[in-house]
Amino acid sequence: MADSDWLAALFEENRHHLRAVAYRLLGSMTDADDAVQETWLRLTGADTSEVENLGGWLTTVVARVSLNMLRARRYRHEEPVGDSWPGAAEMAARNGAVTGSGGAGPVSRARRRVRGAPSPDRAADLPRQREVATAFLAASRGGDLSALLELLDSDVTLTADAGAVPSGKPALLHGADMVAKGAVLASGRADQSQLALVDGVVGIVFAPAGRLQIVLALAVTPERKINAIDVIADPDRLRRLRLAVLPD
Hints:
Elements: H1 3-26, H2 29-44, H3 54-76, H4 88-94, H5 106-115, H6 126-142, H7 145-151, E1 152-160, E2 171-174, H8 176-185, H9 187-190, E3 193-198, E4 201-206, E5 214-220, E6 226-232, H10 235-240, E7 243-245
Parallel strand pairs: 1-6
Antiparallel strand pairs: 1-2, 3-4, 3-7, 4-5, 5-6
Helix pairs in contact: 1-2, 1-3, 2-3, 6-7
């Protein structure tokens, strides 16, 4: 099989996953298809001879393309009208966009936009999430307690599974002061951490030498405060996450 045929076959194997990633970010199947097409074009024009995990590379590329589309959309003050595809509703429900009979499917999202009500789409929140996550990571790296306190909601909670705690038992920290001090203590780990999309929202991953060890899932309020942090280190939980490292 020629190299081009092999790339095309591998791309087709990953197409459904790439569309799912793009749809989560963009909230529109039309835009998601455009992002997937752009990813294919980048694949055909790139030297992937030294890429060990091409599926992961494609996920990162489609996430970057989607983020660029989001930035352009915000600049033009555009919003997707929403469209559906098989499995889209299930993904939206898993990401909190659909809640039973009162949920926000693509048609109801369009109605909200017509009426001028805010959309529940997480995609529109990504720039804000990234801004806060970037500041949190920088403050953690510098051990800047004051900056961390500014970023944390006063009622913030941090949960850590057993794999993330030396005692081997799940832990809970409550309050900005406790969580900020914990982040300062982990400043050495922060030096080797980076931003990533964690199941479609911006978080932080710690993967020294390319080996994933810990993921921080962040919840950010509209006021740009972190009000919840989930520290994930359990191997089974890590395997279930959809991750895509974000460019600096």
